[in-house]
Amino acid sequence: AIKGHNIMKGYYKRPDATAASISEDGWFRSGDLGRKDADGWYYIVDRSKDMIIRGGFNVYPREIEEVLLTHPAVSLAAVIGVPHDSHGEEIKAVLILKPGATATPEEIVAWSKDQMAAYKYPRIVEFVDALPMTATGKILKRELS
Predict the structure, then answer these.
(1) Measuring CA to CA, how many Å separate 99 from each of 72, 73, 93?
(2) What was the pLDDT predicted at 48?
(3) CATH superfamily, region 50-140
(4) What's the pLDDT score for residue 76?
(5) For a FRET experiment, which of 5, 18, 91, 118 has its CA 20 to 30 Å from that of 57?
(6) 130 φ, ψ to 5°?
(7) What is the rounded CA–CA span in Å between residue 40 and residue 57?
């Protein structure tokens, strides 16, 4: 939560979005999730809007992406939640492989299962040649499915 004269007044022509993110006393809820380390330093670690709820467990895509990027064949990773009948959402990894690298979805799932908690590893893996990005290089996850 952020408050100050330098914070936006609201979303342009979106009063409902403004009301949902700015409290009556002026606190703006950015949607960023952070942590504080033992030395008192704060770190932004993810976005609440990106959070996946799988079978009642909160899964933060950035955490999964960071692990996937340690796989020797993976160049870039985007993790999203996709609808699932019994779990609410399922974890899907959309990956770009390094030039010359090979892997199968099954190999990535098996490797991930050894690296992450049982509720976190992606059950669905898709390989793509490129990910949709903004002009500043941020992955447009809303365009993935």
Answers:
(1) 11, 9, 18
(2) 64
(3) ANL, C-terminal domain (3.30.300.30)
(4) 97
(5) 18
(6) -155, 155
(7) 28
How many CA within 13 A on the CB side of residue 99? 0
DSSP character at residue 124: E
Which regions of the chain are under pLDDT 50?
none
Residue 46 has a pLDDT of 65
| pLDDT at residue number 71 | 98
| SS3 of residue 71 by DSSP | coil
Dihedrals phi, psi of 54, to nearest 5 degrees: -110, 110
Alpha-carbon distance of 15 to 34, in angstroms, equals 27
Burial string for 124-135 (b: 16+ CB within 10 Å, else e) reads: ebebeeebeeee
Instruction: Give the number of C-alpha atoms closer than 13 A to the C-alpha of residue 69, restricted to the C-beta side.
Output: 10
For 10, which DSSP code? -
